[in-house]
Amino acid sequence: MTRRRLAAFVVPLALAGFLLTAGGTAHSRPPAQSPVDISPGAIRFDPTLPRLDISYGQSDLDLEYIRKDASDADGCSTRNHEETEEAIVRPGTGHVTLAGVRYELEQFHFHTPSEHRFRGRTDPLEMHFVHRSAAGKLLVIGVPLRSGAESPVDRVLATLAPECGETVALADFDLATLLPRDRSTLRYEGSLTTAPFTEGVQWFLMSEQTVSPSTIARFQGLFGAGNARAPQPLNGRRLTVVPQFS
Ligand SMILES: [Zn+2]
């Protein structure tokens, strides 16, 4: 092999090596973590994507404090930033269907401030509805909560469950009233926002719902330092707006 031909061969190899180093391996994608800060430039519009059919019914709820520091001596008074208030729904009372696949609603929970941001702006709270398919795939609906008129969400957060104490029972709750009327979604592929930060989560962000200022103050009073993960790099991911008026 002549020197010139050798160079022609070695340079692409070196470039491949650089790409391997920069991206982990040539076959792995860059991290696709959640939440994200949404810039308008990352959004595209696609009304042709399958609609998200939401079938939420009536359910008794158990509002429970989710602990992450059960082994700590002062765990009952310390607020770990991955802890939250979570409403457990009765199995079979709510589900969504996307492209023929059914995802059961398991629980919904709250973060302060909002985890997703738009142009760097946060909302006081964000609500996450966690759904799982029979194959184990996760689909989460995120709804920002803003200060304003009372809504059914106020009833869920009227009495917060203590970290080490009884859960709060709410009888016969109409789950559909928790969501905004406009069912348009901003969709992207991300991850869980708490450990183990598993990727492959389908995120569906909706427009805001309102809650009273006193509900916001009560939740922020419990999580004084917040319980939201910082925004993660988009790494080239796009978010897609799918209009839907049900
Ligand atoms: Zn969450």
Automatic annotation (TrEMBL):
Cited Gene3D superfamilies: Alpha carbonic anhydrase
One Pfam assignment:
Carb_anhydrase
Q: Does the keyword Lyase apply?
A: yes
Q: What is the protein's species of origin?
A: Amycolatopsis keratiniphila
Q: Does the keyword Signal apply?
A: yes
Q: Name one GO molecular function term.
A: carbonate dehydratase activity
Q: PROSITE patterns, from UniProt?
A: ALPHA_CA_2 (PS51144)
Protein name according to UniProt: carbonic anhydrase
* Documented EC number(s): 4.2.1.1
Q: Which key words are in the record?
A: Lyase, Metal-binding, Signal, Zinc
Q: Which InterPro entries match?
A: Alpha_CA_prokaryot-like (IPR041891), CA_dom (IPR001148), CA_dom_sf (IPR036398), Carbonic_anhydrase_a-class (IPR023561)
Q: Which residue positions does the secretion signal occupy? A: 1-28
Query: Boundaries of each Alpha-carbonic anhydrase domain copy?
Result: 16-246
UniProt lists the family membership as follows: Belongs to the alpha-carbonic anhydrase family.
